[in-house]
Amino acid sequence: MVCSLGAAVCYGIASVLQAVAARAAEPGSGSGVDAALLWRAVRQWRYLAGLGLDGAGFVLQVVALRHVPIYAVGAALAASLAVTAVAAARLLRVRLSRAEWTAVAVVCAGLAMLGLASGPEGSGTGPAWLGWALLAAVGAVLVVGAGCGRLPDRPRALALGLASGTGFGVVEVSVRLVDGFTAADLRNPALYALLSGGGAAFLLLTSALARGSVTAATAGMVLGETVGPAAVGVVWLGDRAREGLAWLGVLGFAVAVAGALSLARFGEVPAVPAPPAQPAP
Length: 281
Prior knowledge:
By secondary structure, the chain is mainly alpha-helical. Helix content is 70%, strand content 0%.
């Protein structure tokens, strides 16, 4: 759980840095799947710093997924939205309201309940088709992302965040299905779902952060990477709570996610004007 919370801190700060970088980049096509926008954003130091934090968070997340159930890791990662709100308040000098600080406290309370209730990770490997289903989910994420480009800014950010969160959720489940990255895993579709799911998620998240509210995008991401993987872990991978504490785990999960999503109304990240176009010679 400590590793999960460390990953949430890394991801939360990274979202703010990447949002500022994406908005400072020259506007792309407006599509939810905009590789040109990602290329322009990744050339800025803020985005690179965010990627570094994402990398550190991913390492911590993998360690956590090897020791505790997916639902516990997912709910802990919901705290990244609280971190995003606090980081925006500090780095962008935006003042949090009392209701928003209360939502942060609710997230922490839910995580404390979940930490007390969570048992060891399940030992199940799931049905044989699960890896292929994860690959199909990545394809669906890209299709949905491409269709979200014409939505108004706020629902666009939320929808793209949800799609990117689904991609990150594919990564969470795939980590459990990949056995130590051995040679045998080269024939495992879960390995390719892990790689493509992460790439698709970053692509859509960059587009989501370029317009609309950073916390609306992060709220959608939290929902996408929490609910689905938690269900897969319980139904197919054998994740369970401690004896007699299942009710506390369910309550803590619900409280943590509800508190995180309530922060979706948090203020916008100020847009950074794109650099002026250079005149033709």
